[in-house]
UniProtKB/TrEMBL annotation:
Membrane protein topology class: Multi-pass membrane protein
Domain of life: Bacteria
Transmembrane segments: 46-65, 77-96, 102-122, 134-158, 164-185, 213-234, 254-273, 280-301, 321-345, 357-378, 384-402
Record keywords, A-Z: Membrane, Transmembrane, Transmembrane helix, Transport
Source organism of the structure: Falsiroseomonas tokyonensis
A UniProt-annotated Pfam family: MFS_1
PROSITE patterns per the UniProt record, alphabetical: MFS
N-terminal signal peptide: none
Predominant localisation class: membrane
Domain (Major facilitator superfamily (MFS) profile): residue spans on this chain: 11-405
Subcellular location field: Endomembrane system
InterPro entries: MFS (IPR011701), MFS_dom (IPR020846)
Name recorded for this polypeptide: MFS transporter
Amino acid sequence: MSPAQAGMALPILVLCLGHIFSNAVRTIPAVAADVLMRDLGLTAEALAQITGAFPLAFAAVMLPVGIALDRFGVQRVALGLLTVAGCGAVLGALATGPWSMLLAQVVLGAGCSGMLMCPITFAARGLSTARFAVWSGLIQAVGNTGMLLSASPLALLIEAVDWRAGFLACAGIAALALPLVALLVPRDRPAAQPPRSLGADLREVARMAAQPALRGVMVFVFASFAAVLGLRGLWGGPWLMEGKGLDRVAAGNVLLACTVALTIGPLLAGLVLRRVGHAPALLAGSHLLCAGFILLIVGGGPGGWLATLLGRPVLPVAWDAALLVAFGGIISFQVLAFSIVRAAVPPEQAGRALSAANLFFFSGAAFFQALSGVMAAWGGPAAALTTFAVGLVVCSLGFLALRPR
């Protein structure tokens, strides 16, 4: 690594604090769903709809954030987003009913919209394509540690205090990140661009997403993060507590094991890509395999097809834990999508192109989370989880059909 590349490590890691915040705050419902429903007067379907506002607001703001990254630089965008996100966490802690929690989720979604794109764009502009593949995995791995905080630690915090303390803890992460970003992330000055309207910029991003080299990736990522947010962020906890009879802390421990795999997985994905190549095959194969893991989890539940086949009322929790760990490690190959996007555009367009991909990540999450709420009202957590398995299969096959030969 050159001295210039080595000097980028600390700013990238500091920018990852925003991604840690984002992952922590959006996965709070996984272990707090029951008390959130009780205190805010919500049904399971209503909670899914309200928390679905997070990825919807995230997706709505994603394109302007990508344009801002190219126009104004990473540092200034990161400082603005951290301020908005910190305010959203405080609003979450103060929520007293459905509408106030909905407002908090919208503000949080808008504030978190660039938390991954800030370190990713900073790295894309300063690193070679080969090194970017490794660093994009590292950025995802560091950011996913935020989900470690919302597993067992959050479960213990909820038992000791309440769910509001979880939002306040996330606000503390944002307050810590703000001065560090201001001091340690250089104020980058993107190359001067001719005056353009926001509409022209948005049309350019749309054209990028429709390029033959990128449109298959956009279809692929539509279900990719949705599955992570669905299992780890919302329905994993209710499935373990309702379907397997675990208490909150025990469910948090199982989700913690899944999160450790989600943290290690992106690092392995980058290394595997450098060694064996074939990113499209790795992407599609990993997500089809994860769809199978979800169906096996559902099949081992009460009255599930696999439990019935084996003559058991329900398969043990160890079955779910093993499959959730496997899911966390393999689904993390989604990070390779960023490498495909980065290689398809020049560095000065990296912010727009990567943000377009992230838009599809989160618009898909909003769509599938809303759909999972409807399915949960019909068939409980098992039906909600199956929604994500079907989405992974459809979008992976679409990716294979649309990718350039």
